[in-house]
């Protein structure tokens, strides 16, 4: 049995608030409406407390009645679910502090990718995966990063921890949609804000060259431009890019090109170089693509901007319009972006 305060429904919210503020509300049960009355569950009260409440509540309303109600009558309030980070902190605090399990994870469509070290045994990894499946909303598959990003295609190995083995998913950001295969192409949802920043800079008469386009998130973010050349060497990325062009109805603007960018002959006034680890090797090609007074969005890895600035200053007459840290890369390094106005070469 649960003790409830039975009050006129019109006074219900006022009394509920009062009981909540005084820690008298029993949060394990829901409130129940019946006819013109509201039954508000209370924590266990002895007769003295009941008398005190009565006096207090009588100052707010004239009549209050305490009734005992069968607890099945009051629907049990849903226990507030712990979130996944809370679960990790509660059960794996030491491993989190030692860097074996990361609190951050990537959600790409209905797929989540966790960061759990090989040092955590397989049984435990799968247990964490199953919990992620329960606690992270709208998720169908849980993977963990099994390797770093590697190779020319900049992809990583994944290990399925829970849910279905499916790596293709639909991702939404900044008002556009993208098919992404988390196993076959590079994709980072952590660049969503950066893509928005570029999106806001694009002008209607821009010709964009996205030198390392992947499935096309930057190219599609530039959809207000006049023309976009989207280049990548990974056939899976270009296949998905083609689907993404259709999905976002950009057939008239984006030209997909499956080639090594060094073999592509195009020109543009806005060049995107999103290959942070190796972009420095492609600066000459970018300078060959960019028109005078065009802009290069140069992504690189470093602890500061100095090397990148020196590299460009040594090769052309340019001005750094903007520079910012995009995300962390390793404990002491960041992914950096510089917007470089190339006046002439
Ligand atoms: C870091 S990913 C970026 C992908 C995409 N811009 C994004 O934000 O999701 C770099 C991409 O460059 C492609 N790539 C690497 N070397 C290339 C080259 N020489 N020519 C064209 N694309 C290349 C890889 O296949 C990969 O898809």
Automatic annotation (TrEMBL):
| Segments traversing the membrane | none
- Molecular-function annotations in GO: tRNA (guanine(37)-N1)-methyltransferase activity
Please give the catalytic activity noted in the UniProt record: guanosine(37) in tRNA + S-adenosyl-L-methionine = N(1)-methylguanosine(37) in tRNA + S-adenosyl-L-homocysteine + H(+)
Annotated SAM-dependent methyltransferase TRM5/TYW2-type domain residues: 105-344
Q: Per the UniProt record, which EC number(s) apply here?
A: 2.1.1.228
Q: Does the keyword Repressor apply?
A: no
- Name-wise, this protein is tRNA (guanine(37)-N(1))-methyltransferase
Natural source organism: Methanothermococcus okinawensis (strain DSM 14208 / JCM 11175 / IH1)
């Amino acid at each position: 049995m649960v003790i409830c305060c039975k009050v006129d429904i019109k006074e219900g919210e006022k009394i509920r608030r009062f009981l909540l503020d005084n820690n008298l509300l029993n949060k394990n049960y829901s409130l129940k409406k019946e006819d013109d009355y509201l039954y508000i569950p209370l924590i266990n009260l002895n007769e003295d407390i009941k008398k005190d409440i009565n006096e207090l509540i009588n100052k707010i309303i004239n009549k209050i009645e305490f009734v005992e109600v069968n607890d099945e009558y009051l629907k049990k309030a849903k226990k507030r679910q712990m979130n996944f980070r809370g679960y990790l902190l509660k059960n794996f605090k030491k491993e989190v502090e030692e860097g074996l399990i990361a609190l951050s994870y990537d959600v790409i469509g209905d797929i989540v990718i966790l960061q759990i070290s090989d040092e955590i045994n397989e049984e435990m990894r799968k247990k964490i995966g199953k919990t992620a499946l329960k606690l992270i909303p709208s998720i169908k598959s849980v993977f963990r990063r099994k390797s770093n990003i590697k190779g020319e295609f900049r992809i990583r190995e994944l290990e399925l921890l829970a849910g279905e083995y499916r790596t293709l998913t639909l991702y939404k950001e900044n008002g556009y949609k993208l098919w992404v295969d988390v196993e076959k192409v590079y994709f980072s949802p952590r660049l969503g804000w950066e893509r928005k920043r570029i999106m806001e800079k694009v002008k209607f008469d821009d010709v964009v060259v996205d030198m390392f386009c992947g499935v096309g998130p930057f190219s599609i973010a530039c959809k207000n431009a006049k023309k976009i050349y989207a280049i990548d060497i990974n056939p899976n990325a270009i296949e998905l890019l083609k689907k993404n062009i259709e999905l976002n109805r950009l057939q008239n603007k984006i030209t997909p090109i499956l080639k090594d960018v060094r073999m592509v002959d195009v020109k543009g006034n806005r060049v995107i170089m999103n290959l942070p680890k190796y972009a420095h090797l492609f600066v000459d090609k970018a300078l060959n693509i960019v028109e005078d007074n065009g802009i290069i969005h140069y992504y690189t890895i470093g602890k500061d901007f100095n090397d990148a600035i020196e590299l460009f200053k040594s090769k052309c007459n340019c001005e750094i319009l903007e520079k910012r840290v995009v995300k962390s890369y390793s404990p002491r390094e960041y992914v950096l972006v510089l917007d470089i106005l190339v006046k002439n070469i």
